[in-house]
């Protein structure tokens, strides 16, 4: 066998190449993922290659940047406010977007609504090419959600050539491919959904999008860890990457931007899943506050977290169980919070706050199914634990914002003024924040600056006394 025909093996999960077959990928650790593939020709020594490069002429001459028109890259608003917010204003002609999410979270429903709105807005035809469902199944969803635009076309295909043929016939302004892992490129080696196939399909669709100035949305599968399945190069090929996330048992859905060449990459859109489809939530603040009890309850405290550029108040709840026997490991359970940060806050309250919590069962959660991972929620979690331990309710009109360090200090967080302004808008009367984090005066809310977790406990105690 000649050198140019030597066989190598590539991982179907991450794409790494090895010279011989192994049972476990040495890069990502996946078992049984190595696939046989032809090795690329080697580069010659001293800069030479095995084949002489072909001289090429540019298709168009280079232009001065000042003479290049930016009109073609203008965003086209779909009318779905939260979707447009994350996308930086809407869909960009020629732009390729990759959206991922857990199975059943509502990706197909959202994108069917986007395609319907695109056609209704008069931007041109929209083509939905599905490899996971039949056209009749998509039509039933369209009947349920009212997405029956005359400019919306459906095609059930798993062959790349057939998808490109539909694009040639329909000439859409928007193509939705659901999903990129189900489409097969016949001229490319590899199993469907493998690294080689996914890369080939995405490259062909991207080239078609640029050539036709056509907006494209690719649906991507996720791995068991929540990452996008396929090669990492897939995220580099596209212009925008967004994650659609949410709990199946909750009506809340979040569209979170990860990469965006046309706008901010840290935006988050909020949606509510209903029987009639997905509805944008322009002001989701009330979803994450418990409005059931009429009186404050021990073990609760409100913080204000940043979801993208949006400040959202979230109620943190804590419950302390009985102390365990010597030698037993107490149960620490969280929902919507970071387990490691709960353990750290418990240790700080025990060592710096004079409390005994490490030997007790602890349960902590957030309201509304939102996941809070930022350190700014540490102070609210700490006060909720103190409230649960002392059986004294935190004032219902108080919010706590700040990161708790291992030394017991309360550290500053970003966007403190924006968080306080949102709390004041919703009617909160006082806020406990780290010292030096506020740069402007806020009307309607008393701002209490603290340096340590002891200061925060005393500030909360004064609020308790005023309430009593």
Automatic annotation (TrEMBL):
Domain RecA family profile positions: 72-222
Region feature (Lon-protease-like): 361-468
Region span, Disordered: 36-61
Keyword Thylakoid found: no
Transmembrane feature ranges: none
Gene3D superfamilies, A to Z: 3.30.230.10, P-loop containing nucleotide triphosphate hydrolases
Tagged with keyword Zinc: yes
Domain of life: Bacteria
UniProt keyword list: ATP-binding, DNA damage, DNA repair, DNA-binding, Hydrolase, Metal-binding, Nucleotide-binding, Stress response, Zinc, Zinc-finger
A Pfam family hit: ChlI
Entries under CDD domains matching the protein: RadA_SMS_N
Low complexity biased stretches: 51-61
GO cellular component: cytosol
GO molecular function: ATP binding; ATP-dependent DNA damage sensor activity; damaged DNA binding; hydrolase activity; zinc ion binding
GO BP terms in the entry: recombinational repair
Residues involved in ATP binding: 101-108
Span(s) of short sequence motif RadA KNRFG motif: 259-263
Domain notes: The middle region has homology to RecA with ATPase motifs including the RadA KNRFG motif, while the C-terminus is homologous to Lon protease.
Function: Plays a role in repairing double-strand DNA breaks, probably involving stabilizing or processing branched DNA or blocked replication forks.
Matches recorded under NCBIfam families: sms
Family statement drawn from the similarity comment of this UniProt entry: Belongs to the RecA family. RadA subfamily.
Name by which UniProt lists this protein: DNA repair protein RadA
Phylogenetic lineage: Bacteria, Bacillati, Actinomycetota, Actinomycetes, Glycomycetales
